[in-house]
């Protein structure tokens, strides 16, 4: 049986899932390999230009991602997930843009109030 080549959306979705798995496993070198050097990150609390500040934050925060839904349009991937940080789990959405086989842009949206109410939040 001939196997059809994976679409650009399928490849991009697998890349984003691989990134989430690496972050969940706290394998930050593997996570780094999925990210472009010139990564742009826009989050609720801060934004970064470049991959190294993003990786430093991931090492510090040790976030966990429980993916609920993943869909895409070409190399633009949207992920709905439950995010656990500082013992607090909340619903989040991320827009991941994949370019040249790497995640080049990440934009995260969630309601930060549960984190802000937690005594251990944002250590």
Describe, in plain words, how this protein is organized in 3D.
The protein has 123 residues and is an alpha+beta fold. Helices cover 32% and strands 42% of the residues. It is built from four helices and six strands, in the order ααββαββββα. It has a six-stranded mixed sheet. Strand 4 (76-85) and strand 5 (88-99) form a beta hairpin. It is globular, with a radius of gyration of 15 Å. The relative contact order is 0.19.
Short account of what is shown:
With 123 residues, this protein is an alpha+beta fold. Helix content is 32%, strand content 42%. The chain has one domain (8-117): Roll (Nuclear Transport Factor 2, Chain: A).
């Amino acid at each position: 049986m001939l196997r059809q080549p994976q679409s650009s959306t399928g490849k991009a979705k697998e890349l984003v899932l691989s990134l989430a798995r690496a972050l969940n496993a706290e394998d930050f070198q593997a996570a780094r390999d999925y990210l472009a050097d010139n990564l742009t990150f826009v989050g609720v609390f801060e934004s970064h230009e470049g991959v190294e500040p993003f990786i430093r934050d991931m090492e510090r925060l040790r976030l966990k991602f429980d993916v609920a839904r993943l869909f895409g349009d070409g190399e633009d991937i949207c992920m709905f997930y439950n995010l656990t940080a500082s013992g607090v789990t909340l619903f989040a959405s991320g827009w991941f843009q994949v370019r040249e086989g790497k995640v080049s842009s990440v934009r995260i949206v969630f309601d930060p109030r549960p984190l802000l109410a937690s005594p251990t939040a944002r250590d």
